[in-house]
Design brief:
The chain is of the alpha+beta class. The chain folds into 3 domains: 85 residues, 3-Layer(aba) Sandwich (Rossmann fold), CATH 3.40.50.300; 163 residues, no CATH class; 176 residues, no CATH class. The protein has 15 helices and 14 strands. The strands form 3 sheets. The chain has a 6-stranded mixed β-barrel. Strand 10 and strand 11 form a beta hairpin. The protein is rod-shaped and about 135 Å long. The two termini are 25 Å apart.
Amino acid sequence: MNGGQIILADEPTGALDSQSGDEVMTLLDDLASRGHTVILITHEQNVADHADRQIEIRDGQVVKDTGDSIRAQKRRARMQGSILSSTVHTASATAEIGEAVRMAFASLRANKFRTALTLLGIVIGVASVISMLAIGQGAQRDVIERITSMGANQLYVSPNWGRGGNAATLSFSDAELLADSVPNVHAVLPEISGEETLRFGNRDYSASVTATSANLPKTRNWPVASGVFFTDNDSDTYTPVAVLGTTARKNLFPDNMDPIGKYILIRRVPFLVIGVMTSKGASGFGGRDQDNVVFVPLKTGGLRLFGQRFLRSITVAVEKADLINDTAAAVSDYFLQRHGSEDFRIFNSAELIENVSESRETFTMLLGSVAAISLLVGGIGVMNIMLVSVTERTREIGVRMATGARQKDILLQFLTEAIVVSSVGGGLGVLLGFGVGTLLDKLGTSAVFTSGPVLLAFGCATATGLVFGFAPARKAARLDPVVALASE
């Protein structure tokens, strides 16, 4: 048992019939041929003849030793046995682990209901970690995508409304000179906007009206679906033309009526519709419908609709996004020099993405921590069940120790059982986590699965079995064989 290199056999055939005796001697011969040293005591010469070396003792004295005549043969056999012993030892280590795994599964099958309850804690913990982290990452991705769609390389300049600030601070000339005065500026988009009532025929509809420049499609990455966008010349000549968003078009021109070439009234001023924008969808801030809008030339809107020459905002698109912070500082210096005071505010979209990412990562870690508590509870359940198992199997442990099992063998057996339980529960938890996340994704809650959380959750489950299974395994390994055998 346990691969002992020296086997002591005292009268191995003394109480056996001749056939059984021959079978035992065949086993001993086989062990000797594989490198084990077999030392046997016998009164039978035919049994002694199996040995390579015979020492005869009579009345306490050695009267015969055949060792000298076969010394060379024994040396060769010993060398061969040493080589075989090394091979057997390497193979036995793998065999021990394989046997421990097999016994672990056998033990789990023997107590199916208890095993199921133990697995449940691990399964719920792993599934919670995977699904919650997936939901957190999905929410982060959605917010970043919405902000990015608005332009991750853009700065937004607005009047400083707080602390008694004046809204009339950003002028048309501020926007016109900005691109030539600040490096790394790709485009400048001045805007004046407000809610107005639109009219076509006998149909009235309320929408946002924005007076802006001709480079809006390029700056906002928002192409025209049909017709054309107005030009800078239209603004300079105060031409009353308009481009509709898809929501405004559907409400003013139902039944797929083509609005191009038709006039609409904005504050009783007729505007010729020359184009329709592509659909942009809802914004990431409050879910505002970005398509419920009408665009008109900047100076036309300022003179004929809003009656002012001050801007509500200026959007600055930068050429190199990695230099956006330096560009923001340069834009701030530009307005300080022109206005003489900080009567403006600059909003950096890149900073928003960073802040959102950080806050979402914190939220995701919070979700993961809550889920990890479930995994911890599952680990405590594993330890509890393993302690119960040690108590129930005390006699089994005693039998194994009495037949040659070492402390490390018992420790390996119970540690393997704990790891197997946790690993199986971890695998099932991964499948359940994917299932829950996929279901939520189909129901509208965005979920993003990555390999990191999956490997982390499964690794933690396996580590849980190792950590929480060590104490029960150590208790089992330190049992006294005599006491263990005497237990009922």
